[in-house]
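ingest -> validate -> predict -> emit
validate: passed (alphabet ok, no gaps, 278 aa)
predict: started
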Amino acid sequence: MTRPERWTTAVLDTGAEGGCAVVYSRQGFLLDDNGVMFPREWVRRLELPVQSEHGIGHFDGEPVYVVVLEQAVEVEGCTWQGLRQFMLQGDFAVYRMLGYAAQIGTWAREHRFCGACGRPTVQIPGERAMYCEHDDLRFYPRISPSMIVLITRGDEILLARSPRFVTGVYSTLAGFAEPGESAEDCVRREVMEEVQVRIRNIRYVGSQCWPFPHSMMLGFHAEYESGDIVPQADEIEDARWFRIDDLPPLPANRSIARYLIELYLARRSGAPEPVLPG
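emit:
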């Protein structure tokens, strides 16, 4: 028997009673010693600066709502924790739920007003959309496709670091797709822009939601064809070839970047292949 998903998305009626709430602000999610999910009635009694509320799905069968705040406030016995900390530690199913909640919260905050006329929008019952009656426009949650690619040359892999990375960490190359561009074209262009290298045999590997704030990472593997590494100014701090038995500090374990690297290492060594978290 297939094990049911602990977290499933759904458009829930905010007028219904009961359920759990996660509280979201620009500082992250409200957290106490029992976790990140609170009784919805308790959250309502706090008189928080609520911007909006959205029914987002079910966790272990329990209805879940995200309460989006205008700003973070102090709540006795609670702290605020960013989404990245939930990704790096704890229950990955909880992180998946919070990743979705963060994307819905960001979308709701950014679409309170119509982009065409500036009038307030309203939620459409039963549909994940904000609506402007004046212009008859619907605004749906945005997903931005981006590519991430591991480039290999036998027992070497090409890794780079951005000035934004944690000190010492190197990762795979990544970038956003442009309008009218295929994912494969995006891979070729981004690699050429970032390191001036030509690649071949581009193969899709897998994808991962990346809710920072609303990306879909499409993972690829490609082989080196030609060219010397020339890092892109202001984007790439350093880029080089690393032998697979002498790697630098790598990205977080649950990231697709780490998965692409470990998958290649497993295939070169004959070890069991890792599973992409998702």
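The domain at 7-110 is CATH 3.90.79.20 (Nucleoside Triphosphate Pyrophosphohydrolase).
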